[in-house]
Input
Amino acid sequence: MSDTANLRALADDVGDAVGTRIDVMDALDEVADLLDEVDSWIGTTGGSADAYTLTKSTGPTALFEGLQIRAEIHASNTTSSTLNYNSTGAISIKKFGGLRNVSRGDLNIGQVYTFTYFNSVWNLESANGPIHSRDLSTATITNTAGENPLFSETIEANLLGSGRGFRFTGFGTYTNNTGSSQTFTLRAKFGADTIVTCTRTLSASSSAQLFRFEVLVFNKSATNAQNCFGTLLWGGPQSSNTTGGASSTIDGTLGGLCADSSAVQDTTSDKTFEVTGQHGVQNTNLTVSHLIGFIEPI
Output
């Protein structure tokens, strides 16, 4: 039974008992109508992408814990975002139970989302799904033999609990135009631990080679003990395909499981997950580019 029906049934009981059913019903009907207003469809957001506004003349003018609203997004977000409901102020929109700011792609134009005000933030109920974070920017390492970052994100405190984990998936390209074989190393780090190291010797080619790097990190029955796995798929030199892009044939001698390791990071505090790359020698004709990466809680 809905809240409205419960209240009206209560009005019948109370009214019959005191002989003033009509007066009690009128009063409780007003309360029921207010509850309907609070938990109803609001409309379409205004403002700008990343700084949304939302107005409903019959809605509350002060925020309270548990207030829930639904709205259609008028412009896709590009980074962390805020929502100003009924001029109550720009409040951060979070996901994963309020642990993390929304990121690019979490709010899409024309889609309807549910927001709940809790712990002084708007929690995006409709975006507690698979994507924790994504990085669509290109990071390039060239003309250096030093270790350099390709991807980095914060895994928030308590996100993993004592039995959950996350998966990182990244795609990139590698070019060795030196005329001879060269080594390249991918590493994944969680907190202070290096959990995956993949070193490959790669033949020379003027064409870029595609690769996919995947890392799994799981808390194993404790918040400070992780099992970690890394896999690498490596393609040969790219060639044109029918869609106008490029494709590679997977090289079975270069791909496969890189690591089956453990870590002892205390995940009740924030921890950084990072992927780095390192050429074996410094050369202007050696280049690696990280094209896209994302993290999924699992």
In short: The longest helix spans residues 21-38.
